[in-house]
Design goal:
The complex is a heterodimer of chains A (122) and B (278). Chain A contains four helices and no strands. Chain A is an all-alpha fold and 122 residues long. Chain B has a three-stranded mixed sheet with strand order 6-5-7.
Amino acid sequence: MLKNQARLILVFMFLVTFGCSSNTSKEELIIISSQLQVNINKVKKEVNALIIKAEVARKKAASVGGEWRDTAKFIKQAKQFQKNGQCEKAIKVIKKAVREAEMGYQQMVKQKQSYMPGYFKF
Amino acid sequence: MNKRLQKLILICITCAISFSVFASPQSDAQAFRKHFTSNFPKVAVEEFANGVYALDPVGRESWEAIEEFPPYEPYIDDGKVMWDKKFKNGKSYKDCFSNDPAIAQNYPRWDKEQQMVITLALELNQCLIANNEKPMKYKKGSINKILSYVAYQSRGNKMNVIVPKDDAGALAAYEEGKRFYFSRRGQLNFSCATCHIQNAGKILRSETLSTAFGHATGFPVYRSKWGTVGTLHRRFTGCNKQVRAKPFKAQGKEYRNLEYFLSAMSNGLELNGPSTRK
């Protein structure tokens, strides 16, 4: 999505510079282009915030010995998607990482409170 | 019922629950043995040391065939060379341990000075470090050779892991190991006990789940999956990954305490390492 928006901006910039003859349409193109840029920046900020959130959650889970196997891998994948401009994919994967980290923490906190199963009596 | 009596009853119930969780290692081991011997009445007690092959007759047939020419034999031979070989400073493992390598039944042990559980693998490396030698890695490689040699020399000795009653640190380490064993973890939400106590003897995918009783007697093991001999902590790592939990460090505190608990539960069984498994 982000790449497509970037492409659209370039097209609009081109049209602004070399395209339509009327001044009014050029102004409209500039407005649309800056709106697209705002959207791109908003999405990038969202991805960054989610990556930070996932890292914090992962460390919290690790602090109680509850980190799951794939959480760090998902964070790494999200960073790679972000680097490639694939922000939608990054968001999808990073949300998984956040959820896993949160569940891992809750799981281990609950286990610390009560871990002996009912089927086995010492 | 008056408030005082209610409080007293509540205290009694809390104590009862506490005692049931924090029973002594000796009573835990007895209960552990009783659980498996009563759930598998046709299995002789000493057979539990053979793991899944005590339960799976088809698997046992191929295991017995493998044991005629065991794939861990070269590791025992290489391990003997390592045991006898002098370090650069002229000393050897015999200076750290004793001339007799039949010591595996005493590990892991509680070290009062270091206030931690010491496994055989850890102590071997401590010996190397003390003699300015490079320590071995804990899951793969040469450590499996010397562990195989020591395990083989210790065969027939009964597991004798001691948890000193008068040492709060040792009891705490034991309890941590026990807690680890019974705590669910990972995305699949399994504990060690889920497979090896609750569902021991049942089939998971294509494999029969082995019993926890006897688990620690046969390591290191030659696993067909690995194509080599590997340590108990390597297996812990694999098990944790299989339930989609992030594994802990081999010979880290978590796995040493876990080994402490697991080995204590097999006290009285004869050691039979190294062994072969799928």
